[in-house]
Amino acid sequence: MDTIASLFSFITTPVSWVIVQFHTVYGSLFGPDTGWAWGLSIVSLVILIRICLIPLFVKQIKATRAMQTLQPEMKKIQERYKNDKQRQSEEMMKLYKETGTNPLSSCLPILAQSPFFFALYHVLNGIANGDTIGVINQSLLESAQKAHIFGAPLAAKFTDSASDVAALDASLTSVRIVTAIMIVMMSASQFFTQRQLMTKNVDTTVKTPFMQQQKMLMYVFPIMFAVFGINFPVGVLVYWLTTNVWTMGQQMYVIHNNPTPGSKAQAAYLERLHKRVTQHGKTRGRGEKAIVKAIVAKGRDRNEFERKFINGLSKAGLAAQVDGTVAKGETQIDTLTEDGTPLTAAAAAKRQQPKRQSKAQRQSGGPKAAGETTTSLTKSDAPEDAKPVDVAKPAGPAKPAGGTRSKAQSGQRKGGPQRPKSPSKK
């Protein structure tokens, strides 16, 4: 503990000062020695820290999505260099550098609040041991030792002996019941948060080892919280339970309003967005415009849910614009280009191919274009081989049947004396 105190001494004083300031406010409402005053001070400390960590949380969301996008490329690198681990690592680092992705960004919120967690742990442990720390003087120390949350002192642990608990003016049974309930709630909130992320906000079209790791962590983290929780003071359990609930609510908000592309949450969001847009005829707010703009910009790369959304707008007579707005069409739009963008009715008519003619129509010349007059062939228009044979001339030897033939056959002259036939043909 001395090592932890020396490592986090730079943050212990600020944390204790923040707790004392909140305790002053809540102490005037509930009494300075009550568990409500000290418990709400810890909860307020968590909320303040998490508000300050919102920018890091946004980076975590972006980093997680970037890692999900890179999973297919990472899998190819692993398969290509599966026998060369050094080359595999080099290619992975090259991929991260080219895409500007940092795998550690997803751990930023946890890493950032770790100093506050250990500082609070040291403060509460000092209260349990009767040691003043930071700005907590002797009078505040005695007040904190008297504070109980549902019968359990702030500094009590599940593993404390009966004598230790009695020194804090409490019973061992009440301490273990309260700490056990809080440990279960802490583990359950962690499990639900991770499960919500895996079942609703993960692209189901990509199956990678990263998803298997996340599923494994969904069960590992709650077990770790349960194991380590029995050694945490009640005040630390309050801190960690509050931060888990905050994380769960924050994640629910992100999943509901800005889900991962290709996930079940995106399908539900686009369905809600489609109803709102078709009802009002426009997108409302920068968030909706940003989503529609991103979908339009994808073109052929749209997933199943995004194509369904665009087609739904087209059937409703609406067209998504490149700036994220939605424009009304004069007619129903139900034709899409090759890249998935909707066509106007006029453009769709131009793209229609002419109907294929039947064999009989092709042989007879087919139907005439509009505006042309159809006329029958006259005698002057008829070909020469269709003229009747002069009956006044002596009939020659019978010719074999088989279609019409022209008078100007080989060996004959057209108009003029005929060449006598050779004797060999007699």
Task: Explain this structure.
With 426 residues, this protein is mainly alpha-helical. The protein contains 16 helices and four strands. The strands form two sheets. A two-stranded antiparallel sheet has the order 1-2. Strands 3-4 form a two-stranded antiparallel sheet. A hairpin with a 5-residue loop joins strand 3 and strand 4. The N and C termini lie far apart (133 Å). Residues 330-352 and 368-412 have low confidence and may be disordered.
Number of helical segments with 4 or more residues: 16
The major sheet is characterized as: 2 strands, antiparallel
- The share of residues in extended strands comes to under 5%
Task: Please mark out the parts with pLDDT under 50 across 5 or more consecutive residues, or reply none.
Answer: 330-352, 368-412
Order of secondary-structure elements? HHHHHHHEEHHHHHHHEEHH
Offer a quick outline of the entry.
This protein has about 425 residues and is mainly alpha-helical. Helix content is about 60%, strand content about 0%.
